[in-house]
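Dissemination and training. As part of the outreach component of the grant, students in the summer workshop were shown how a complex can be specified as a set of sequence lines and then modelled as a single object. The example used during the hands-on session is reproduced here so that future cohorts can follow it. Participants entered these lines:
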Amino acid sequence: MDLAIDVQQLWKSYDGTQALQGLSLDARLGEIVGLIGPNGAGKTTALKILVGLLRPDYGVVRVLGRDVLADPVGYKARIGYMPEAPALPEYLTATEFLGYVARVRNLPKADIEPRTWELLRVLGLAPKADEPIASLSKGMKAKLAYAAATIHRPDLLILDEPLIGIDPAGQHLLKDQLAGVARAGGAVLVSTHQLDTAERLWDRVAIIHHGRTVTTGDLASLRGAAQSERGTLEEIFLRLTEEAGMPEPERPKRRGLFGRRR
Amino acid sequence: MGRVAALVAYKLQFFLGPAFRGRFGPLVFLGLLLVFLPQGFFLGFGLGMAVRDIDPARASVLLAAPLAGLMSFGFLWALGTGVTAHASEFDFFLTADVRPREYLVADLLFQVASVFVTGGLAASLAAVGLAVGAGRPILTALPLLAILLGYLVLVFLLVQIFIVLRVRYPKKPIRLLLVVLLVLSLVPSLALFRPDLSLGLEAVPLPSTAFGALGAAIVRGTPVAPADLVVAGLYALVFVGAWLAVSNTYIFHGIRPALSAGLGQISVSAKMDQQRRIIGGLGPLTTRVRLRADRGGDTSLMTRLHLVRILRDGSVLFIVLLAVVWTFPAAFRDESLGQMGWGVVLTQMVAFTIAILAMNWSYYERENLWIVQVATGSAASYFRGLLLGLAGIGLVMTAAGYAILTFSSGVAPPLEDAALPIAASFAAALGATAFLTRVRIAPSAFSPALLAILLVVIVTGFMAGLAAQGLVLLVDAVLGVSAAARAFVVAAFSLGLLAFGLVSVTRLGAAFRL
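and obtained this result:
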């Protein structure tokens, strides 16, 4: 399978704190990869680098075959992103917002309305279509953010805690949607704390801790890594992250390689 | 009492702490205090001279006017939240076994302390000014300050009484009563604006006139009338007695958070909540104007996006209010127009509005740019839209101001005056937009960026406006052309400015990063 995400030796620091310390990660087209790790492990930082909202200090980031550091814009047309706590223009209605995102995503004008309504219906947002986002519930806002991430039918979806605040029916719906994306040949990278969901639904899981990858693989290979024959993902996660401990501080060989640091 | 002290300390730390943080905080805070000192002194000095020269009854009414104003603020405060609880107090203190009276005492102490920390110096100098203006020893200021403090405590007690009543009797028309009292309490304040107006209030035993009479006697150095002392004492007894009677009523379920940020700070999340309520409340009205994403070019879409935002998030109400407050006094007071010219008045209004809208953008809209950034990587069209939206608002305000001023004076102001706000609208919008592409404004009155954006927007607005005005006058003097030709010069100058702005903002926006 083709690699949708290929991250190697990713380093990133903020104000002297190392958020990422040599993270490596990959995801293939047609699969859903779960990114799990304790709070502060570097999940959101990694995702923000993948979507171009942050620049790493060092490392290789290839998305859908493109080096995102060499060409930081071209690949964006093929990715969709849903942040953990999406800031939404609450003064717009749901239809206006999706229309606006569709325009920013360069959808043909004639396709904007049908695609908007298709998503609103699928996600159960049609009854609230013409109300300002400010009046939507937290779960509805999350669904709307998901709709915005997928309005242009991306090949790669990058989602940061997409299930937070969504009711069980909504979560079920969203999981179905993600499975559909993978079945259609797309790739999905999901950061989550919901280990039961990750265990049941994601094809592979990458466990990260202190800004580096502890292990990657399906449940069977994770059990192998944790030397636990029948452990749940939660048990494996706890054991591996405990064993990983705090890494020795290391420095990448080259720093400031990519110009302006952020 | 230990718990009361802890509550007061928490409140003071929360409210005043941010002002003293950072390198610039204490300096700016001190600067703000010092700015108001001369005003305080000269206000007191003027009042002192007036009190010395008029008859005792009128002097009481004159000094009662600012006290009545304080009472009006009290009623307004009681119509709102009335107590200064922060959300964290609800979570951690009001869920503990704090008794309502303990909390109310702490709140009272905090309110009095915070008023004196922020306005105490100016009030002290006003009292000194009163004494000096009336030709009395400076130490006369001390009893005057004591009267002010006593009156302030009574006002806060009254506010708390009304808050308890509102919570205790939610179905009684307490708010209506407060509105009536608010209107009535404004009447004595008229004496400040029209000292010649006699309403016969000196004969009415209002709290403000009783305390005003005490102050007038001290300022004039005459004996205090026993009747005034009795009335003031009776009010104090009634307020304290009523407060003691109601202050143990449980109210924590019925009060709302009032403090969302410290002095000079802006709580973005609290403001967002407020905006959410405004958007929800205005929704049925404002969503009639639709953002049609399937129409127009990129810049057009972004311009409409910004205008829809300003329409729906309540900013438009602010713009209308500001225009009314700014324009009407200028329209109906010929002397101010004679001194400044209406072009300057409108330019001030336009530049100030654009600066405020730019700050609002930074606080509430900037974060939404992730949508554009993850899609295209360039925010050029977004910022072009912001520039056009702000300039458009400036022009609409200029046109509205022009109409109001023409209507009120009956004469259309000259074109060279119009050139100033027209060109300023484009320049101020350019200054604001360019600034926002490079600087993130911290939500604090003590933020250097906040002062900088005000300066940048107002200075660029005025410089370009004066340049346009100068150009029109030059063309007129050298060529002596018609009004239409001069209007063409203004339009050409403004369009040139706009073109320059669009090119600049495109470059700056392309390099924007969240």
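Residues 65 and 107 of chain A are 23 Å apart (CA to CA). Students were then asked to discuss how this feature might be tested experimentally.
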